[in-house]
Design goal:
elongated, four-stranded antiparallel sheet, 14 strands, 34% strand, TPK_B1-bd_sf, alpha/beta, transferase, 216 residues, Rossmann fold
Length: 216
């Protein structure tokens, strides 16, 4: 089972949601993201949030349309996205994709990245029109070439990343030690149909990006 979550980020940052739809996908709406899903013709199985970005009329309309809305007070100790993501993890989803989590407010963007760090042992992606962001624990991973996402960047989340090795890339590395704050691994590119990255210690973020001027 795959669970896809749509948050309330700017709609112009969203890719086409239909390309990520399918029989095995269950959609969740978060705050205004619920309205975004319905406008795209996708009915979420559940909606979460305080819905403070919607008018009373819009909330009433959602309540008439949806069977399951988990409405929270505005004053709480978790963001709407964290509440939805916790629920998705509890369902035992094999993969979770998050949309509408970038653009707009930077505090929400960094909060959403923090959620990926919290669940670094799960298969979770943040996706927008230009980027796919994932967080990884030590191990060896395969990256397949995708013409939509030419650039591949690695950003240290923990203080140190030890033993970082990149194969199949334009700029390979072998057993490299990089530190948080380093830009050494920004804007690399695959030069083969697939490559690998591996490291022995730390928490590492991978961001796959399209060309700066290209709109996906």
């Amino acid at each position: 089972m795959w669970i896809h979550i749509v948050g309330g980020g700017p709609s112009e940052q969203l890719p086409s949601l239909h390309q990520y739809d399918g029989k095995q996908v269950r959609w969740l709406g978060v705050d205004r993201g619920t309205k975004t899903l319905l406008e795209a013709g996708i009915r979420p199985v559940k909606a979460f949030g305080d819905f403070d970005s919607l008018t009373e009329e819009e909330i009433a309309s959602l309540q008439k349309t949806l069977n399951d809305m988990d409405i929270w007070p505005a004053e709480k100790d978790k963001t709407d996205m964290e509440i939805a993501l916790e629920w998705a993890v509890e369902q035992g989803a094999d993969q979770i994709r998050i949309f509408g989590a970038t653009g707009g407010r930077l505090d929400h963007l960094f909060g959403n990245v923090q959620l990926l760090i919290k669940y670094a042992n799960r298969d979770i992606e943040i996706i927008d029109r230009q980027n796919v962001l994932t967080v990884h624990l030590p191990g060896t991973y395969t990256v397949s070439y995708d013409e939509r996402y030419r650039y591949v960047s690695y950003i240290p989340i923990s203080r140190d990343i030890k033993g970082l090795t990149l194969t199949g890339f334009k700029y390979p590395l072998t057993n490299c030690h990089i530190f948080r704050g380093s830009t050494l691994c920004i804007s690399n590119e695959l030069i083969q149909s697939s490559g690998t990255f591996s490291f022995s210690e730390g928490i590492l973020m991978m961001i796959r990006s399209s060309d700066f001027h290209r709109c996906l």
